[in-house]
Write a structure and sequence with these properties.
By secondary structure, this protein is an alpha+beta fold. It has 9 helices and 6 strands. The strands form 2 sheets. Strands 1-2-4-3 form a 4-stranded mixed beta sheet. It has a two-stranded antiparallel ribbon with strand order 5-6.
Length: 294
């Protein structure tokens, strides 16, 4: 059975390099696609793309945010300088916005810190091959921990979905047992109603029953029940394959919901309607879980 990963998870790690403490935090959230954000000191901007590549190699779907922090005395941080011209430019820009928007609050330091351009980097400040390797190694180790957390959550999601799938399967069996009766009951109901309205002696009984049978066949949900059972089987097969499978599972659930709706629209038996309501509730609950699957 393949591993199933949740798209949500968190992991952190630390290491020390030349008396500098480096910490890494990785957080992943739901997303239709793979989105990666890396937060680094400006002196390490050249590592942004290599770090994204390392994450892409281990995560296939989700919104992943990576943050690297360094101890205050790190040479990496000492390589930063403030650009006075950029500070003045953004301060004046914010002041202009404040006045035009009618904002009475004053400009604070945290507002200026949103603009990375106010910092410049000293050439060759704090970055060497050994530091790069230490950072890559730390991120790799944290990625392993992140995937372990995502796999653990994925196992819990798998267990819950399998339980709900069994519930749906039992409900579908109930509907299947009633499907044949539904068409027959509709036939008998139409027959009684028509015979109460017409003179039997003036009607071709064989032709009438044929027409009634055709009408009654329209409420037969046997085919939909079979297809619903087939979707359940396919869902299980895909679930066993493991990630990445979230998009496929979501598509199968859409088909299951469509078949359930068709059965609900065609059926005239109140018992079937009740079972379909429960089936759709479970399908919706599984859909909520699948939104979290890689």
């Amino acid at each position: 059975m393949g591993k199933l990963f949740s798209m949500t998870g968190f992991a952190s790690g630390k290491t020390t390099h030349n008396h500098t403490e480096i910490s890494c935090e990785l957080r992943s959230l739901n997303s239709r696609y793979l989105e990666i954000g890396v937060k680094l000191p400006p002196t390490l901007r050249e590592l942004e793309e290599p770090l994204k590549e390392r994450i892409r190699a281990r995560v296939q779907r989700g919104k992943v945010h990576c943050v690297l922090n360094f101890s205050e005395q790190s040479p990496v941080l000492k390589g930063l300088q403030v650009d006075p011209g950029a500070v003045k430019f953004y301060r004046d820009l914010l002041e202009q916005i404040r006045q035009q928007a009618g904002i009475t609050d004053s400009i604070q330091l945290e507002h200026l810190l949103q603009f990375s351009e106010i910092f410049t980097v000293e050439p060759e400040a704090g970055l060497d091959d050994s530091l790069k390797e230490a950072i890559f190694r730390l991120v790799d180790e944290t990625l392993v921990a992140l995937n372990q957390a995502r796999e653990k959550e994925g196992q819990a999601l798998r267990k819950d979905m399998e339980h709900r799938l069994e519930t749906i399967e039992r409900r579908v069996e109930k509907v299947g047992q009633l499907a044949g009766k539904n068409a027959r009951q509709e036939f008998e109901k139409l027959k009684r109603r028509l015979y109460s309205m017409i003179d039997e002696k003036k009607v071709d009984a064989n032709r009438l029953e044929l027409e009634l049978a055709l009408i009654a066949e329209r409420v037969d949900v046997t085919e939909e029940v079979v297809r619903l059972g087939s979707h359940i089987k396919l869902f299980r097969e895909q679930l066993k394959k493991g990630s990445p499978v979230g998009k496929t599972l979501n598509f199968i659930l859409q088909e299951m919901h469509r078949e359930a709706n068709t059965i609900s629209n065609k059926s005239t038996m109140i018992e079937i309607s009740h079972w379909i309501v429960e089936i759709k509730e479970e399908v919706e609950k599984i859909r909520e879980q699948v939104q979290n699957i890689e």
